[in-house]
Amino acid sequence: MYNCIIWKMVRKEMTEEQVKQELDYLRAQKENPTGNYRKYLVRSYEYILNKSKENNTELAKTNLREMIDYVYEGSPDHMGNELVVNYQKDLKNLGYIKKLKENGEWRVYIIKELDF
Description:
Elements: H1 2-10, H2 16-31, H3 37-54, E1 59-60, H4 64-71, H5 80-93, E2 97-102, E3 105-110
Antiparallel strand pairs: 1-3, 2-3
Helix pairs in contact: 3-4, 3-5, 4-5
């Protein structure tokens, strides 16, 4: 568990084994939550999904301030900004979203549905 916490702070690309371990962890958290990480990760995905539905596409134009408010249900903590950025990175590293810069704007695409 200690190594997992250190890895989350670094946010490196993940090997297939690390992805499997992270997904196993997230699935276990669904049944027996020990914190809010999974909840906030799911809410980050939901925000992106809702924004893509506004356009009737898999593309979402996200707004970090809006996303923070959505993820934290209007009450972010002092680390909210940094953590929401990291949740997006985690979703990307786990293969659920991708971010591309198109015409000078960052756009987020849904790759697959959540399965944890």
